[in-house]
């Protein structure tokens, strides 16, 4: 019985942690990018359920990844291509975890 309880508890924690990371796919023409002191980048009006649709690239992200994010979003804005971003919806700042430019809309 203890073994079954352990499996149920383990699976419930696994599903909770997996549910925290969600994704959206959008053409980011309305997104507003903002540099902030401390190396933070905010993306506003992204269509997420976060306050103001805000996503955050925090100060721990490498300069290369920050530049890649800016480049990806600006390329999508100009070309009308979509991007997919994954973020952690369980944290108040909705930190961005992954992103990609989609080849086909």
Could you give a short account of the major beta sheet?
A: 3 strands, antiparallel
Number of domains: 1
Give the SSE string: HEEEEHEE
Q: Globular, elongated, flat, extended or rod-shaped: what is the shape?
A: globular
Mean pLDDT: 83
At the fold tier of CATH, the topology name is OB fold (Dihydrolipoamide Acetyltransferase, E2P)
| Cα-based radius of gyration, to the nearest Å | 17 Å
The CA-CA distance between the termini, in Å, is 50 Å
Task: Give a description of the structure.
The protein is an alpha+beta fold and 105 residues long. The protein has a single domain (22-101), classed as OB fold (Dihydrolipoamide Acetyltransferase, E2P), CATH 2.40.50. Helix content is 34%, strand content 30%. It contains 2 helices and 6 strands. The chain has helices spanning 2-20, 63-79, and strands spanning 21-26, 32-36, 40-44, 55-57, 83-88, 96-101. Strands 1-5-6 form a 3-stranded antiparallel β-sheet. A 3-stranded antiparallel β-sheet has the order 2-3-4, with no helix packed on it. The protein starts with a helix and ends with a strand. The model is unreliable at 4-17 (pLDDT under 50).
Features of the shown structure:
105 residues; alpha+beta; OB fold (Dihydrolipoamide Acetyltransferase, E2P); 3-stranded antiparallel β-sheet; globular
Summarize the structure.
With 105 residues, this protein is α+β, with helices and mostly antiparallel strands. The protein has a single domain, classed as Beta Barrel (OB fold (Dihydrolipoamide Acetyltransferase, E2P)).
């Amino acid at each position: 019985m203890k073994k079954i309880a352990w499996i149920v508890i383990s699976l419930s924690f696994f599903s909770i942690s997996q549910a925290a990371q969600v994704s959206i796919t959008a053409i980011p023409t309305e997104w507003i990018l903002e540099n902030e002191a401390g190396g933070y980048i905010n993306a506003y009006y992204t269509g997420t359920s976060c306050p103001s649709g805000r996503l955050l690239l925090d100060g721990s992200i490498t300069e290369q990844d920050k530049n890649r994010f800016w480049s990806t979003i600006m390329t999508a804005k100009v070309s009308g291509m979509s991007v997919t971003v994954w973020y952690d919806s369980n944290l108040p700042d909705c930190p961005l975890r992954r992103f990609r430019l989609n080849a086909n809309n």
